[in-house]
Amino acid sequence: MKNLTDSFVSVGHWPSAGSFEFNTDILATNPINLSVVLGVLIFFGKGVLNDLLDKRKQRILSTIRNSEELRRGAIEQLERARVRLRKVEIEADEYRTNGYSEIEREKLNLINATCNSLERLENYKNETLFFEKQRAINQVRQQVLQQALQRALGTLNSCLNSELHFRTISANIGILGSVEEITD
Predict the structure, then answer these.
(1) How far apart are CA 130 and CA 125, in angstroms?
(2) Which GO terms describe its cellular component (predicted)?
(3) 128 near 136, Cβ under 8 Å?
(4) pTM
(5) Ramachandran angles phi, psi of 17, nearest 5°
(6) CB–CB of 15/21 below 8 Å?
(7) Alpha-carbon distance 118 to 124, whole Å?
């Protein structure tokens, strides 16, 4: 440590101007060399370092600006996507509502059509029953009439002579013809 302080103290004591020597004492010369190198670096490197720092600062600021612009663009896209999502949700609700109402309409139409078909079938059934009933009544009438005529003819044949018999048959044929016209 004494050598170190001696080197600084001896700075004030300069050897004669005629001699030049190398100081081989590393501990004594190292702080002096370092201070000279640092001074030169600071003096000449200050501009380069400032330029490098300014360039770095500009790159960082431009990156921040680009990031802000991208962020704003992403926020705008997000808002547009949200608006589109709301529109799509509204349309989906409308389709769903319209679909349900359409289903209900179709259901009511089907029920009404089925009811109408059942009413028509009931009317056809009633008409068929009425016509069958009328036909059965007409058949019974004809059979009763034929039996009555046969009995009357049998009675007349046994009781009447041929001329009276002929007039009665003619009158009955006339009556039967008018009855057949009525039933047709």
Answers:
(1) 9
(2) chloroplast thylakoid membrane; proton-transporting ATP synthase complex
(3) no
(4) 0.37
(5) -70, -20
(6) yes
(7) 10
Tokens of 90: 């509204």
Contact 168, 156 (CB under 8 A): yes
DSSP conformation class of 22: -
120-138 burial: b if 16+ Cβ within 10 Å, else e? eeeeeeeeeeeeeeeeeee
Q: How far apart are the C-alpha atoms of 162 and 168, rounded to whole Å?
A: 10
Q: What confidence category does residue 86 fall into, taking pLDDT thresholds of 50, 70 and 90?
A: very high
Residue-wise pLDDT tens digits, 125-178: 999 999 999 999 999 999 999 998 888 878 766 776 777 778 878 888 888 888
Nearest-angstrom CA–CA distance, 78 and 86: 12
- The answer to whether 30 touches 38, Cβ cutoff 8 Å, is no
pLDDT, tens only, 26-37:
666 777 778 888
Q: In whole angstroms, what is the distance from residue 45 CA to residue 39 CA?
A: 9
The residue whose two tokens read 């009525």 is 182
